[in-house]
Amino acid sequence: MNPEHFEAPFITEEMQSISVVCTECGSHSKPDFWTKHNDPFERIASTHPNGGFWRQVGVGVRCSCGATNHVPVKAIDLQHPLYMFGDEAFRGDEGSRHFVGVYSLLGATSGPIKEIEDDLLTLKSEVLSDRDPRSWSIHATKMASGQQRLKHRAYRNLRREDVDLLFSRCAELISQLGEWGWNRCIMTVYQIGNHPKKERSAVRRSLNRGLYLGLIGDAIYRATAQRLHPLFTFDAQSPSAPATGSEGWADAAYFGSRHYLGHLFITHGNDVRPPRFVAPASEPLLELADVHAFHAARSIWQRAQGITPERGLQQFGSFSYINYRADRVLTQVGSDIPDSFIF
Ligand SMILES: [Zn+2]
Q1: Residue-level pLDDT at 2
Q2: Which of 49, 77, 106, 224 has its Cβ near the most Cβ atoms within 10 Å?
Q3: pLDDT at 335
Q4: Is 304 within a domain?
């Protein structure tokens, strides 16, 4: 893990393969995605009376012979919003040998999102018929724990079987949404036990940031390639975040990443709005993202210890599973996390 790369955006394989042949000497070189620039790469409002924006359509790449060669940036105009909802789950405390980190991101355009939201409200009304479904929210960790369930004002009368059924029905909804192809989940299994105890919280923060940037970078790249403007909503991690709509570390990472050339390529030359952080489970899709993230982290944790997970991720349908390891990411589309991501 290189601390210098804390804010550098995630670079797709496709971007890494960009190579420019020098018009002067014929040798190959690559754009430098990793150097921080003073000014962010973003569109600049035109001073022309008709308005409009300037945007960068290419960059100069300097060759070792001294010549500067032009590399075009594929600029794509965005047409529709793509709503994406993310939540995280972590496993492994300060004393653990392994740290497991997961972010699940559920997404679609407005039509399918609305349908799933309505279906979730109906499902919640069935589970707790005496309560307004908007008055309580699903928190998988609290629901799965018998002790925490008993203490909770809304869940206390739920039996283990009720919770299992609720999770299965949530998995069905997530699977339906997944047919639109935007459900993704980034994960890492990291041997945190190799670090001295006093360094571990800093390592965890750095992994958290890497997972977050890897996830949104991948989503921004794929969405903008398809003319979609990704609008992210995340579950807040710190208690103060919902009031401002932002998380300090996440904003720093996001705005920092705009100072790298990679950002221009990832966004296909667009300004993408920074993710919004809201109160946990305050929106229906965040409740579902929580259910997936909880099960993904639990599944990885159990599989790493040779235990068969009681709920297989197959129930959640197709996901792009992304492995974040040593500042690189590898994506595989499927109905479960491949063994190679865990072991
Ligand atoms: Zn040259």
Answers
A1: 41
A2: 106
A3: 96
A4: yes
Domain that holds residue 32: 6-72
DSSP symbol at 275: P
Q: Calculate how far, in angstroms, residue 19's C-alpha sits from the geometric centre of ligand 1.
A: 13
Does residue 28 belong to any structural domain of this protein?
yes
Indicate if the pLDDT at residue 5 is higher than 50: no
Ligand 1 centroid vs 60 CA: distance in angstroms? 12
> In this structure, is residue 196 part of a structural domain?
yes
- Asked whether residue 124 is domain-assigned, the answer is no
Give distance in angstroms: CA of 31 to centre of ligand 1.
13
**What confidence score (pLDDT) does residue 93 get?**
75
Q: Domains in the chain: how many in total?
A: 2
Residues 137, 282 contacting (CB under 8 angstroms): yes
Residue 47 has pLDDT above 80, yes or no: no
| pLDDT for residue 4 | 40
Closest to 221 (Cα-Cα) out of 275, 260, 181, 269: 269
Q: How far is CA 66 from the centre of its chain?
A: 39
CA of 36 to the centre of ligand 1 (A): 23
Q: How far is the CA of 29 from the centre of ligand 1 (A)?
A: 8
Spatial distance between the Cα atoms of 78 and 20, rounded to a whole number of angstroms: 27
Structure pTM?
Answer: 0.91
- Of the listed ranges 39-48, 62-71, 174-183, 251-260, the least confidently predicted one is 39-48
What is the pLDDT at residue 6? 58
Distance 24 CA to ligand 1 centre (A): 5
CA of 62 to the centre of ligand 1 (A): 8
State whether 17 and 102 are in the same domain: no
